[in-house]
Design brief:
Layout (H helix, E strand, L loop, with lengths): L3 E4 L23 H13 L9 H13 L2 E2 L5 H5 L6 H13 L16 H7 L3 E2 L3 H9 L2 H4 L4 E10 L18 E10 L3 E9 L13 E11 L2 E12 L28 E4 L9 E8 L3 E12 L21 H5 L4 E13 L4 E3 L3 E2 L1
Parallel strand pairs: 1-13, 2-3
Antiparallel strand pairs: 1-12, 4-5, 5-6, 6-7, 7-8, 8-9, 8-10, 10-11, 11-12, 12-14
């Protein structure tokens, strides 16, 4: 069935997250599959082994009710599972050295475990309770470094011809050099970024001479947490005029279905554009029932019209002359906001964002 998004409510306080519910116990087994496996095991019992049918059935029943944690079990514990042999047990241990199991279904990625073997193993294993799995994942270096990538970009630009503002008697206070650099680390669950930019005509000052510095550290796709961002972030939600007006009609070939018309929610900010970003903390949790909240406080540049009103903050990010530098970061801007969204069908999205 397709799903429909419906906005339910808005509030700024997120209920405390319980670590025991951070990760639900992952299992593909059912009582029926466990019973079927117990019956099969009893049917093939070796009469000469000395094992009684009743004793074996009791043990397997206990194992189904208390499954083996494949993230913590040793070889002996793994060998107690039906259809498990020494080679398969060692393969499981080797796999989890690279990263803990997040779901039982990952057993099919282990060498030697096919669909049939998985069906027999699944009723008797677990990846751990919420708190256990959270601990196994959070303490695993491999978990945080999955698909990691490090990027460093450094760029120098300068117009050879002397421009008007740089000539004798010109109004630009700095030199004609443009500098840009970005250091970015990303993995499946982590993101960290530092972007620095210096525009032509601006004097060298601040951090290493860069007039704009953007940074963030973010955790993503960890249990129910879709995004947790500290630092700079962008918000594209709803159809408001303050944060985003993706529903507006504009010029261009794709008037209503361009990529800029698609909502992107809350995401880390990496650009050198000195506007349209927030600085603070943002959190997005949940899937079908999604909660997004954020707080931002930063200085922006604006022209003051009178004691009670200002012109919309400057978007260019250029502060080359005395006049431009007088209004540089002269207004403190604070945003708080969020939304609740519940998804029923995919073909419709009704959402609304509230700001303060």
């Amino acid at each position: 069935m397709k799903k429909l998004y419906i906005l339910l409510a808005f509030f700024l306080i997120v209920p405390g997250l319980n670590t025991t519910s951070l990760f639900a116990q992952q299992t593909d087994s059912t009582d029926t599959s466990a019973e079927d496996e117990i019956e099969s095991a009893v049917e093939v019992i070796d009469p000469e082994s000395g094992e009684s049918v009743e004793e074996l059935a009791e043990f397997l029943q206990y194992l189904a009710q208390n499954p083996v944690n494949i993230n913590r079990a040793d070889v002996e514990e793994l060998l107690s599972i039906p259809a498990m042999n020494l080679r398969t047990a060692n393969a499981i241990l080797a796999y989890r050295k690279e990263k803990p199991f997040e779901e039982i279904s990952e057993l099919t990625d282990v060498r030697g475990i096919g669909a049939k073997t998985y069906e027999r193993i699944a009723p008797f294993v677990t990846v751990g309770s919420g708190a256990e799995l959270a601990g196994d994942l959070f303490l695993s270096r491999a978990y945080w470094m999955q698909n990691q990538k490090v990027e460093f970009i450094s760029r120098y630009q300068q117009v050879i011809e002397t421009q008007e503002g740089f000539r004798d008697g010109g109004t630009y206070l700095g030199n004609p050099i443009k500098l840009y650099q970005r250091l970015n680390y990303s993995s499946r669950h982590l993101s960290a970024n530092l972007t620095q930019d210096h525009d032509p005509g601006e004097p060298f000052e601040g951090t290493l001479g860069y007039d704009f510095n953007s940074f963030h550290v973010a955790v993503q796709d960890v249990g129910p947490v879709g995004q947790l961002i500290v630092g700079d972030f962008a918000v594209n939600v709803g159809q408001g005029l303050v944060l985003w007006n993706g529903g507006s009609f504009g010029k261009g070939r794709n008037v209503i279905d361009g990529v800029d018309k698609n909502e992107r929610g809350i995401r880390p900010y990496r650009s050198a554009v000195e506007a349209r970003f927030q600085r603070g903390v943002a959190l997005q949790v949940g899937d079908d029932f999604e909660t997004s909240v954020f707080y931002s406080s930063r200085a922006v540049s604006a022209s003051q019209l009178d004691s009670l009103s200002i012109r919309f903050p400057t978007q260019s990010g250029l502060y080359r002359t005395e006049t431009e530098r007088e209004r540089r970061y002269n207004v403190d801007q604070m945003f708080t906001g969020g939304r609740f969204r519940y998804r029923f069908y995919q073909w419709m999205d009704r959402s609304h964002s509230i700001l303060h």
